[in-house]
Design brief:
Two copies of one chain form a homodimer. Chain A is built from 13 helices and 14 strands. By secondary structure, chain A is of the alpha/beta class. The first copy, chain A, has three domains: 9-84, Orthogonal Bundle (Arc Repressor Mutant, subunit A), CATH 1.10.10; 86-203 and 357-374, Nucleotidyltransferase, domain 5, CATH 3.30.420.40; 211-351, ATPase, nucleotide binding domain (Nucleotidyltransferase, domain 5), CATH 3.30.420. In chain A, α12 (331-341) links the parallel β13 (317-321) and β14. In chain A, α1 packs across α3 (43-55), α7 packs across α13 (357-375) and α10 (274-285) packs across α11 (289-313). The longest helix of chain A has 25 residues, at 289-313. At the A-B interface, α1, β11, α11 and α13 of A face α1, β11, α11 and α13 of B. Chains A, B: GO terms for molecular function: DNA binding. Chains A, B: It comes from Streptomyces hundungensis.
Chain lengths: 385, 385
C-alpha cells in the first residue's frame, strides 16, 4: 500500500527530479521540449530540475545534432546523464581474505583485488588489509578516491543500520566493532555495511543464480548456516538486521553445537577450520562409519535449518553457497528433504558467483544507494497509514 | 530500490491521478487553482484528471463557500472526495464459525454478523452460511450489494493468488477448493482471499496489538501453529502463498505430530477438538503429571516453531493469537525461551482483537485493494532492474 503524501513541496521537487532524470536516461539527448512532453511537467518545472541536476554534475549539455546546426537560429539545447560522474566500491571482509571490486556509476566492474588475512588477525590488522587492497585497486585503475560516491561492505555478523557489528563470532574482535565508522575514516562518501549472506543474496540476484527470481533465500552453508533473503526483489534485513540467522536455533538452544555435530572424536571442531571439516567429509566418502554418521547429522541439521527458513519465508528459489556448498552431496539431500518438509518446495541451486559473491553484492548495494538517491521516489512518496 | 519508468504516458496519467486524488483528500474542498498549486502539475493536466475522477464517481463538485457566492462573477468550482462512493466486506470462514464485517470506503465498520458452522460441514454448507451471513449484514445496514467495491476473505490454508485453496487440512473439502471463484458468483466486485493468519497480522497492525510496529509476526497458536508476517508494514505472503506455515516442519517431517504431542493417552487428539486440548491443560494445572509433561512438550514445540520464524524474519513484535493464546502460561515461556534462542529477541504480546481478528484483517485487505487502485503509485512507478 503506497500513497502520495500530497502537498509537500520538497517531496514534489524530489519526485519531479527523479522523473526528469529517468527520462534523461531513457531518451537520446532530449531537449527541454522533449522532457516537458515525456514527463507531463510544466516547462518551468523541467528547467528548474535540469539546472539543479547540472549543478550536481549529473547532467551535462550535449553537443547539438548535426542537422540542427545548419538550421536558422540557435539550436535547442540537448542534455545527457553523466554515467562517469562517480565510482563505487564493493568490499568483502571475511575470515580468510579481504577483497574489493571497483565500478563506475553504471555498475560495470573494471577493477578488482584481494588479500589473504590470517583467521586470528585482530580487527586493526584486518582493516589495514582492507585499506591496502582498496589503495591498490584504485591506483591500478587510475581512479581518484575523491570520485567514490558510495562504498558497500559485506562481512559476517549482525550489522546495525549505522554499520556497527552487533554480534559477529566468526571474526576476532568483531562483536561491537563500529565497522562503518572505522571505514568512513578512509572514505568521504557513504559506507554501507551489510551482513555477508545478505550481500551474497543481492549478488546472486544481480548477476548469479537468482537473476530470474525476486524471492530468494541465499544459504551461507557452513558449520552454522546463515542466510540472506530477497523478498519481492528487496533485501530483507529484519527489524534489527538479524533476519536469517537460523543457525542460532541450535547454537543458543539446547541442541548439540555444530562443531560437535560434525566431530568424529567427541572433541568439537574449530568453527572456522574448513580443512578439518573437509577431512571428515573425505573420511565419510572412504567409508568411515563415524565420519558418515557425522556427515549425516550435519546434513540433517542443515536440512532442518533451511526447511525452517523456507517455511517461514516461502521463497521461489534457494541458492546454496559458502564452503559446505562445495562438498559433494549437499544439494541432493537438501532437495529431497525440502520436498518432504515444505508445502511448496522451492528450487534449490548452487551459487554461481563463487568467492566473488560477497564483494559483488556489496558493490550492488553501493550502486543501489546511489541510484536510490538519484532516481527513487519510493520510500519518500509512500507512507503507510 | 524504486525507479520511475519514465516515458510511459499511461503510467504518468496514473501517477498524476493519484497525486490529485491525494491532494483532494488532504485539502478542504480545493479549487482547480488550489490543486494546480499543491501538485505542481499543469492546469490542463489537473482539469483532465478531475474530470476523469468525477466520471468515476469518486469526486464531486461541492457547494461554493458562502463568501464566494456574494463576490462578483462566477465563483471558482470546488471539489471533494466521495467517501460514501462504495462499501467493503471483510469475511472470516473458520472451522467453527463464519463472520462478516461491513464498512464504507473510509474503513469505518457499521455492520457485523456471524453464524456457527459445524466442524464437519461440507464446503457447500459452509459457503451457504457465508451467503446467509452476508445477506443479513447488508440488509440490516440497508446497503445494496451493488455498492460493494471489494470483499476480503480470511480462511485457513495456503491460498493461491486467484483465491484457490492449494492446501487446507483444517476444513473439510477445503484443499483444491476454488474459493475465490465460488465467492465471486455472489459478488460483482473483486474478492480477495487470504490465509487467516495473514489476515490476522494485517488486522493487529490496523487496529490491534501491532499498530506501532511495521515488522510483525502474528502466530496463530493451535496444535499446529501457522503465522502471518508483516515486513515493513506489508503482508509477506511468500512466493506461493505458503509463508509462515511453520507447523509443517513437524507435520511433514519425522517428528511426532502435534495431536500426539499433547495427548495423555497415547491416542492422538482430534486437531480441531479444542475442548480435549483445554482438558489436558486443566489436568496439568491440577497437578496431573502426564498432562504436565504433555503441556511441556506442546510449549517446547511452540517455542521452537516461533523461534524459527523469529530467526528467519527478525520481527520487532510477535503477536500471539489463536486458541492456544487463551491458555494460561503460553506467553511467559515464549518470552523466556525466545530470549534464549534469538540473537535479538522481539517483544511478545497477546492478540487484542480476539475472535474478530480474521474478519477485521479481511476488511482491511479489501480497503487496501480499493485504496491501491485509487491512490497507489507504488508497484506501478517502481520496477527493479
Amino acid at each position: 500500500m503506497g500513497r502520495l503524501t500530497g502537498g509537500d513541496p520538497s517531496l514534489l521537487r524530489r519526485i519531479n527530479s527523479a522523473v526528469v532524470l529517468h527520462a534523461l536516461r531513457g531518451a537520446e539527448s532530449p531537449t527541454l521540449t522533449d522532457l516537458t512532453r515525456i514527463t507531463g511537467l510544466s516547462r518551468p518545472t523541467v528547467e528548474g530540475v535540469v539546472d539543479g541536476l547540472m549543478e550536481a554534475g549529473l547532467v551535462v549539455e550535449s553537443a547539438p545534432e548535426e542537422g540542427e546546426a545548419r538550421r536558422q537560429g540557435r539550436p535547442a539545447r540537448r542534455f545527457r546523464f553523466r554515467a562517469e560522474a562517480g565510482h563505487l566500491l564493493g568490499i568483502e571482509i571475511g575470515p580468510h581474505r579481504v577483497a574489493a571490486l571497483l565500478s563506475g556509476l553504471d555498475g560495470r566492474i573494471f577493477g578488482a583485488g584481494s588479500r589473504e588475512v590470517p583467521e586470528a588477525a585482530s580487527a586493526d590488522e584486518r582493516l589495514e588489509r582492507v585499506r591496502m587492497t582498496v589503495a591498490d585497486v584504485l591506483r591500478r585503475a587510475g581512479v581518484a578516491r575523491s570520485s567514490l560516491r558510495a562504498v558497500g561492505v559485506g562481512s559476517p555478523g549482525i550489522v546495525e543500520a549505522d554499520g556497527t557489528v552487533r554480534l559477529g563470532t566468526a571474526l576476532p574482535e568483531w562483536t561491537g566493532l563500529p565497522l562503518g565508522e572505522r571505514l568512513r575514516r578512509s572514505f568521504r562518501c557513504p559506507v554501507l555495511v551489510e551482513n555477508d549472506a545478505n550481500a551474497a543474496a543481492v549478488a546472486e540476484h544481480w548477476k548469479g543464480a537468482a537473476v530470474d527470481s525476486d524471492d530468494v533465500v541465499f544459504v551461507m552453508a557452513g558449520l552454522s548456516p546463515g542466510a540472506g533473503s530477497l523478498i519481492g526483489g528487496r533485501l530483507h534485513r529484519g527489524f534489527g538486521g538479524a533476519a536469517g540467522e537460523i543457525g542460532a536455533l541450535h547454537l543458543l538452544g539446547r541442541d548439540v553445537t555444530p562443531e560437535k555435530l560434525l566431530s568424529t572424536t567427541g572433541e568439537p571442531l574449530h568453527p572456522l577450520d574448513e580443512q578439518a571439516v573437509a577431512d571428515v567429509f573425505a573420511l565419510a566418502r572412504q567409508g568411515d562409519e563415524r565420519a558418515q554418521a557425522a556427515v549425516e547429522r550435519f546434513l540433517q541439521r542443515l536440512v532442518h535449518d533451511v526447511a525452517a527458513l523456507v517455511l517461514a519465508l516461502d521463497p521461489e528459489l534457494v541458492v546454496v553457497g559458502g564452503w559446505a556448498a562445495g562438498i559433494d552431496g549437499v544439494l541432493e539431500p537438501l532437495r529431497r528433504e525440502l520436498a518432504r518438509y515444505c508445502l511448496r518446495p522451492p528450487r534449490v541451486v548452487l551459487s554461481m558467483l563463487g568467492e566473488a559473491v560477497v564483494a559483488t553484492g556489496a558493490l550492488r548495494l553501493a550502486l543501489d544507494h546511489v541510484e536510490e538517491e538519484l532516481f527513487a521516489v519510493e520510500g519518500t512518496v509512500t507512507a503507510r497509514r
